Amino acid sequence: MSGIKTLGQFIIEKQADFPYAKGELSRLLRDIGIASKIVNREVNKAGLVDILGAAGTMNIQGEGQQKLDVYANTQFISALTSGGECCIVATEEEDEFVKIDSPVSKNAKYIVCIDPLDGSSNIDCNVAVGTIFSIYRRKSTNGEATLQDVLQKGTEQVAAGYVIYGSSTMLVYTTGKGVNGFTLDPSIGEFCLSHPNMKIPPNGNIYSLNEGNYVHFPEGVKKYLKYVQVEDAATNRPYTSRYIGSMVGDIHRNLIKGGIYIYPTTARSPNGKLRLLYECNPMAFIVEQAGGVASDGFNRILEIEPTELHQRTAIFIGSEHMVHVAESLMMEFSSEK
Ligand code: P6P
Questions:
Q1: Residue nearest to ligand 1 atom 14, measured at CA
Q2: Strands 129-137 and 159-165, how do they pair?
Q3: What was the ipTM of the complex prediction?
């Protein structure tokens, strides 16, 4: 039986994929792994200590911050600061991007966009939550990095990943050469390779979206629901609806079993709810690397040109066949014709 391979060993081994690598990206991924273990420790004992519930503050989105949101944000910024490989962090929990203020980091070449704890409103009811991160190389080569270094298309990502704090804690990431999943073994405190070369099934029978927004859905989404609930269900396959309310949980399940996750435009979220830089781009990179598809219903997520730090987009992501059916209905019933 092949021995255990830890995240650290795997990262170093795969560094050979990048002939000019000097180890910075490897160390950056290590830093994220360390912060994930610290956050995991607090998430797993939430309820036992006074870290549940609202922090009494709001983020730029006007969303109430949970204490664990703020805690996770602090831990990732701290780990990236002490690691010295990142010059800027764009995080859901800060209005502006954070310049890493340490002598070594000023000239660091990587930028991290992160949602430190996605789905945190679920924490108090013990539902899976996650961290989502995206890594870019800064574009500017001299002086301090700026917002333009952060606002890069998803195709420019060097790496992307997520951590799911669920029945077990897993870190799943890609550097553009496939997707690999690591499960945290608490007995040794290491993420160990458990899901090598992850591939999403090209088709599936799971659809994930919040049908509570039905009346506000675009016509194409309503037609897609009719397709999965009536038309295709009658001729080909029974479908099932699964919606956790935690993007990482829903997409991780679909990555393993096949499925589609949709967060379209709604009345409350006319531009979509999920953020491009630190939710949709990283998840799109991962799912594409696993053989899936990610769009806003019309255009590839990774090709969207960012203009704002916290900009939102609709997202249709998952098994290739399912997303293509949804996109064709979005096109057919688009009012933008
Ligand atoms: P709704 C969590 O707040 C999140 O950003 C995603 O993780 C999740 O899929 C979605 O929003 C849930 O949103 O409007 O269905 O509650």
A1: 210
A2: antiparallel
A3: 0.98
